[in-house]
Amino acid sequence: MVSSSESAISPAPRSNENRSTTPGSAGFKAYISSSWAEHTSELPPAREQAPFAAARRARISATHPGMRLIVPAGRLKQRSNDTDYPFRAHSAFAHLTGWGSDSEPGAVLVFEPTESGHDATLYFRERAGRDSDEFYANPDIGEFWIGPRPSIAQVAADLGIQVRGIADLAVVLEAVDSETLVVREADPVFTEEVDEARLRFAADKVLTTNASDSPFSLEINGEHEPDAHFARDLSELRLVKDSYEIAQMRLAVAATERGFGDVIRDLPRSSSHLRGERLVEGVFNTRARSDGNAVGYDTIAASGAHACILHWTRNDGPVTPGDMILLDAGVEVDSYYTADITRTLPVDGTFTPVQRQVYDAVREAADAAFAVAVPGAVFRDVHAAAMAVIARRTAEWGMLPVTAEEALLPDNGHHRRYMVHGTSHHLGLDVHDCAQARRDMYMDGVIEPGMVFTIEPGLYFQPDDLTVPAEFRGIGVRIEDDILITADGPENLSAGIPRTSADVEAWIAHLTA
User: Fold this and answer.
1) Inter-axis angle of helices 501-512 and 353-372, to 10 degrees?
2) For strand 83-84 and strand 78-80, is the pairing parallel, antiparallel, or unpaired?
3) CB neighbour list of residue 193: distance below 8 Å, 6 or more residues apart
4) By C-alpha distance, which of 424, 392, 423, 386 is closest to 407?
5) Strand partners, 72
6) pTM
7) pLDDT at residue 209, rounded to an integer
């Protein structure tokens, strides 16, 4: 009988016995396992990010002395029946290993405590030999189904880390104690195994010691506070990017810029289609797949009043000349670093006077936020600077029942009716990076060189909002840029994508001529 831990470590393939035609005869098995060329045994050089990942592992090791740390990559997630979503490893796993779009599902990184720190070992399911039926009959890992897979030695050389086969992970589970920490959300099935192992350890302690004095915890599932603190520490580890990460962010922004250009060139076609937003989405996603791994998040192609829906991803509406289209999109490169950029474009190439009025106000707010995003400032001040502009402009336009100064008071916020989201968020491996960091490290944190975050004010006048003049209703504008903090001040990584209303019009005219 296979134990539960074995099934969690190496799950059996989904059954398709009712429709399988794979031969099972001895003759077939003997023939398919013979006369194959040898797998290449050449070891690759360590990839560029390997030393950076090693430095990150050293930093997280130093903050958790004497504790076993487990960071799963995660596993395939079912889309329907026996088809899965494309695999993406958990961001903490990618950050600490340097494995990106070529990560193996089910892999697990373990920090085993030593007297001097930790020994880090990567466990993954090694490729099946040609003498195994997994080679041809397992659609999850078989080479006939998904292509060649690397060997243990090749992964070890590639990532510059100790690597073992997945079966050896059972020994880790046997050694789990109450102080073992795991990234819970990465692989819920494996986390359940860690929880059960911690319970077994705790139960053994109860039988041999006074439970009221025991230094262990019986908290499991979503209530295990030490695991939450571990996730927080891993999130905060990414607040300041190293030079490799910054270079990857530049690549992601450059690919995204090309994608925006593709969309503009295709506007004549998309604006003549009943579901033109889908064409816009498809054009950008083509660039993301050709120049990167994928999109970093679902593309928002919101034309007309859809631009007032902050996370409009259905993208099934028309792209109508005379309207604007809000495109919020980002390419994720193979290392998993993603851009996150928004431009609002007049579909026919020219803003109407009211559209330009709203657009220029949003750009003014973005520029005000950029001006205060300097080392030593507090992160929340970036949002405050943008909001001061939004309050002033909406008050000038007669939309507020109070003055701009009164709207900005903590107990008011009338201007936020037209921009309910925040102005900035950290960016990196996740589009909303470092999301589990403490508030005093994030919103109330001090801006430092190496941080990368967005600046993205907007104005959204819902089509049925009676507080705004009729000519404003149905207009939504957001301008979003990706900002790198340097010792000399903020650098707009996406400044190459036109931002002013005049430059946007010239850009569209040039690309659609």
Assistant:
1) 120
2) antiparallel
3) 4, 5, 8, 9, 173
4) 392
5) 108
6) 0.93
7) 57
